[in-house]
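Hello Y.,

Per our agreement to keep a running log of every chain we model this quarter, I'm adding this entry. I've kept the format consistent with earlier entries: sequence first, then predicted structure.
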Amino acid sequence: MLGYSLADLQDGSCELLCDQEKFQNFDAVPGGDSGVYECEQRTESGVQVPVEIHNARIIFAGEEAVLSAVRDITRRRESEWHLRQLSLVVENNTEGMVVTDMQGTILAVNRAFSEISGYTEAEVLGRNPRILKSGLHGDEFYVHMWSELLEKGAWEGEIWNRSKVGKIYPEWLTIRRLEDEQGQSRRYVAIFTDLSTQKAQEEKLIHMAQTDLLTGLPNQMLLRDRLQQALLHLENERDEHHGLLAVMTIGLDNFKKINDSLGHGAGDRVVVETSKRLLACVQESDTLSRLRGDEFALLLPDVADKHALRQVAAQLLSAMRDPLHIEGMDLFMTGSIGIALYPHNAREQTKLLKQSDVAMYQAKDQGRDRYCFFSAEFSTQSAADLKLEEQLHYALANNELLLYYQPQVEIATGAIVGAEALLRWNSPVLGWVEPDHMIPVAEDSGLIIPIGTWVMRQAAGLIQRYHAEHKCWLNIAVNVSAAQFMEDDFVEIVDGIVKYFSIPAPCLELELTE
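Predicted structure for the entry above:
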């Protein structure tokens, strides 16, 4: 073991084996007759070896002697050090750990277990982990857990437990069964992580994702989710005694004036104050949401009848009429409300939201500060206007627009002395479109400006050709939209057309409608 020969040791001293200060002779043995101690001995090559020495007093060859049995404990020391390391890791681990016997009696816990549960080691040793049960899981939950443990030797999942002070917390729990060298089950080891912080962060992120940051109201995503849940409930229940489900879209009237005159900060304050007033008018079962800008939506999952809806709408309109004190001013606001009903108007959430939005614009078109129930006729007209606007974008490029001229005739001579340009549109998709339908859509979409410029150029070209053919000038009147008239470059555009076609300016008459 040490590499010495008998001859090396026969001249007599154990100092070869141990440093003098570490040498422990027989007289130091407790009890005087026998003893066990550990020390380090030097091998012949000078390496220190940890050993365990058992000393006993004996009579040898008629004389008193000491018999020492020396065992190399290098492996035992390494194992002990490894166990100490493991113990440090377990004790300082942030995950809670519990060791039980096969009957579930707690044999050991670590520091993290006590920090999470609130129980000290002394309080739980010898007890069953059921002291942590929260009461949130039914018997079937634990039956399934033990079935997995017995069948597979392991179970993993999320569980809610209760701390010593009664706080219920979520944890991710992993349980493993430990077996000895003969394959016999001896222990259960449970490791768990407190999910409270993670859950709180997840809830915060969900709240942020579903909440309007300005008003704190549910945003459109959360509104759609609640509307979908309400619709599924109605579809599944089919309760004949259930009231109406209604969606209201609420928009502030002339809100743009606030932003343009007082700034977006004042506009935000108007939105916030309005949201508070609207919220005070609704019930806890209802959902008031901010959709965008100055628009809100209200989900009423169970309203008795249309009369009750009218009362709610009237109350909301009244709340919005009260003056708002913003930037030292009293602002008098009004709102418009559109209402869509399930299943009368639609059975699907996207259509209900769209139809309530259409009804709100119908209320605005009828004079604002009022509510309107969704009308299929209005929706049909809106769809037609949208189709008309789509085709109008192609009209100029595809040469679909025409100018007719209504002549001014001198009665005495019958001579044509002037004319008024009349815009017409022959669409290959829509056919002939009346000006009364085309012009409002062109103005709303902004297309009236390039169309108006095209009309002036066509009229100026006719004036030029008429002069070349008849050697006289013809005055042509062209209607000009107010939107076009207000453009900053309007004067430059007209002046450029007159110069390009080399016509007298008075020949191009511009008529601004009342």
